[in-house]
Here is the input.
Amino acid sequence: MAENGLKWYERSGNSAGVVCSTRVRLARNLQRQPFPARASLEQKTQVAQLAKAALLDGNSVLSREFHFLPMEELTPEEAVSLAERRLVSQEFVSDRQGKALLALEDESVSIMINEEDHLRIQVLREGLALKEAAETASRIDTLLGENLDFAFDPEFGYLTQCPTNLGTGMRASVALHLPALTEAGSMPRIAANLSKLGLALRGAFGEGSRAVGDVYQLSNQITLGLSESQAIENLSSIAGQLIDEERRLRQEMKENPAWQDKVARAAGTLKTARLLSGSEAMELLSLARAGVSAGLLAGVELGAFNQLNMRVQPATLMVEAGRRLEEQERDQLRAKLVREALAPLRVE
Here is the structure.
């Protein structure tokens, strides 16, 4: 499923000026197997082998594109880098015993084995692509279901460890870059209104995280009594409204000399800095990304910012360097990567 050897986050998709990415995740559990929280190491290992065989031994061409990764074989930095690149959850890497990952080379599909549930099927797409991501997740679900007996109840749907995931077991989300709405102070009001509609607006890494670089995660909260297609339709509708409002406010901000100055200064710092902390890099990249989208900056595609947001994370920097790095070394390497990637960036 890789396109020209690129990772999914190196490409720009639909509504890329506002939408960084789309994610659809399905929670599935096996019949006659205890949930991971109650399972022994031997039982977890058995689940991992069953999932591996169900997918890799399948007749589908797609099956042969996955690789199997036992989490215990990774260094701490490699494991955390997977979370930074959103292949796995942060909870998944905290205790790696008995856990494994099935993933595509372009990292657009990953299956966490023995996270909160036996299987967490996750599809990531660039831009706004909820329908496409849901269709891919359904294909993977079908492939696995041909050889695995999923725990399912006629009344409650797919059975999950957490009751909030009962029913479809699907959580869909859109990562939105909303600097204009944030600047306008609108986010608390919007988040409160969305909660009444069964939707959540949080930091980019989900519950408990903050919106670093003005990136927020909009996701569905209701999985019981609502079909997958209805949930996708509702989420698409609300995402569309937020995109339109963000674009409207950006047009107003574009004419503001103070904001023009902030964007230009951000671009200058990114192109010349010799040391960049993680938080500073994310804030400056956010401004530059918005500047490119608004036409104040040019010379770099939006996909470059998506890629940099992954590459500048601490553990990912160390994996790329091939060794542990002290904080100043990370800041130095981060600045170098950003300078090289944004060298063509110019103020219009």
About this structure: Residues 275 and 332 are 5 Å apart (CA to CA).
